[in-house]
Design goal:
This protein has helices at residues 2-6, 10-27, 33-41, 45-68, 74-94, 99-127, 133-160, 172-194, 214-241, 246-274, 276-303, 310-328, 331-340, 347-375, 379-388, 390-398. By secondary structure, the chain is an all-alpha fold. Helix 9 runs antiparallel to helix 16 (390-398) and helix 10 packs across helix 12 (310-328).
Length: 415
């Protein structure tokens, strides 16, 4: 990794700092938000599902925002996204509003985060030298993982020492997150200067929907299902069924992030060496395995047949960490899109469209997941996700085996 850093240009290094601080800021806000809902508002599983509507709606709207602001560069648009994130999380840090008012600021913060999602990958790709897409993206993800791990340490220490609390009038963990994102906002100015404002917003074409991208759209839909099932209800098993607090989830996040420091760069190298097809197979099989076992454990915890201590508990922890690894394979979707892109200017609008598709599915799954948990039991959420993940296997079978070095002639982003 350090050998790579010595060969990078100034813009790339600035963006590594942006990536690092963004991960740290999200680790102090988004990564502990489920505990916030439980501690500050005593949310039920059904309410937890409903909360995802204002959290995920920005993901649907983001394509319209990106297209409507297409006269701005990707960097300028990123600055707007960070201001929205700061406003949303800072207000929740200073006050504990009513449940309905809280949802408004959750929406504002989430709009900022979702607006930055397609831009983050698009800007990153534009700063990577030709022929190094897998390694470059792997490095970005490794830095993200390393600073997510650092955030987990801060969360664990802060809650264990009593400095952080969701029941206190001031939520210092959210204030810290807002300050970090403000530094990211300032670094965006430095990045814009270093690249001479050359990274354009490629969303001039407001909607890009091509038949050539059909398997990418399929992967996006499946990620929308899988994300909500595990990112929302996976932690909820630990929080609601097992009564675990943010310090426990922080330790698990730390372990997952530590493993990810080595795992993610390896995935980037595997992509360059073995190609997209092999990693898509790995992605699909890992999701299916994790969901099946998580469903069996959830059934045992929910019925009382499994102990909340000992081996079942540690197996649940291990699956939670394994799912973190599975989710980190998600960068394969972005790289797969880049390998099949008809026009380089399709990248940002297609990522934005994919994000919107993902979130339409996510909103639906959040509501249905809350209903399933409440009326039938949590295990059926995970069994359903495992069954649907067979679609990922089908996509892996159908796509052509493309390795990332073939992108050398295609990685130039429109200037």
């Amino acid at each position: 990794m350090f050998k790579q850093l010595r060969t990078m240009n100034k813009g790339f290094l600035i963006y590594l700092c942006i990536t690092a601080l963004t991960a740290l800021g999200l680790g102090l806000s988004n990564d502990v938000i489920s505990n916030y809902f439980k501690d500050a508002y005593q949310a039920t599983a059904f309410q937890r599902g409903l909360i995802e509507f204002p959290r995920e709606l920005p993901g649907v709207l983001v394509i319209f925002v990106v297209a409507g602001l297409s006269f701005l560069s990707d960097i300028r648009l990123s600055m707007i996204s960070q201001l929205l994130s700061i406003i949303g999380i800072a207000i929740l840090g200073f006050i504990t509003p009513t449940f309905s008012i809280m949802l408004i600021f959750i929406f504002i913060n989430s709009m900022g985060m979702h607006l930055f999602m397609p831009l983050q990958d698009s800007i990153g790709i534009s700063l990577i030298k030709e022929g190094n897409l897998g390694k470059g993206m792997g490095l970005f993800k490794a830095v993200t993982t390393a600073f997510s791990m650092f955030a987990s340490i801060l969360v664990f220490i802060g809650f264990r020492m009593g400095f952080f609390s969701f029941l206190a009038p001031i939520k210092w963990i959210f204030i810290g997150s807002a300050l970090l994102i403000f530094i990211v906002f300032l670094l965006m100015f430095a990045l814009e200067h270093s690249v001479h404002k050359s990274i354009k917003n490629n969303a001039k074409v407001k909607f890009v929907f091509r038949k050539e991208y059909k398997y990418y759209y399929t992967l996006v839909v499946m990620f929308g299902v899988q994300k909500q099932m595990m990112l929302v209800y996976g932690p909820w098993v630990l929080i609601d069924l097992l009564g675990k607090g943010p310090d426990t989830l922080a330790i698990l996040g730390f372990i997952g992030s530590f493993i990810g420091i080595f795992f993610i760069p390896a995935v980037g190298k595997w992509l360059d060496r073995f190609g997209i097809k092999a990693i898509l197979y790995l992605d699909a099989l890992s999701f299916i395995g994790v969901y099946l076992v998580y469903g069996l454990l959830s059934a045992g915890f929910f019925s009382g047949k499994l102990s909340h201590f000992g081996l079942p508990l540690f197996l649940a922890y291990a699956l939670f960490i394994a799912d973190k690894m599975s989710n980190q394979l998600g960068m394969v979707r972005t790289i797969y899109l880049r390998t099949i892109t008809v026009d380089p200017s399709d990248v940002t609008p297609t990522l934005s469209l994919g994000l919107s598709i993902d979130h339409v599915v996510s909103i639906t799954c959040s509501f249905l997941g809350g209903v399933v948990w409440t009326y039938w039991g949590p295990q059926y959420i995970f069994f359903l996700a495992a069954a649907l993940s067979l679609v990922n296997l089908y996509v892996a079978f159908k796509v052509q085996n493309t390795s990332t070095p073939c992108l050398e002639a295609a990685t130039t982003v429109s200037k």
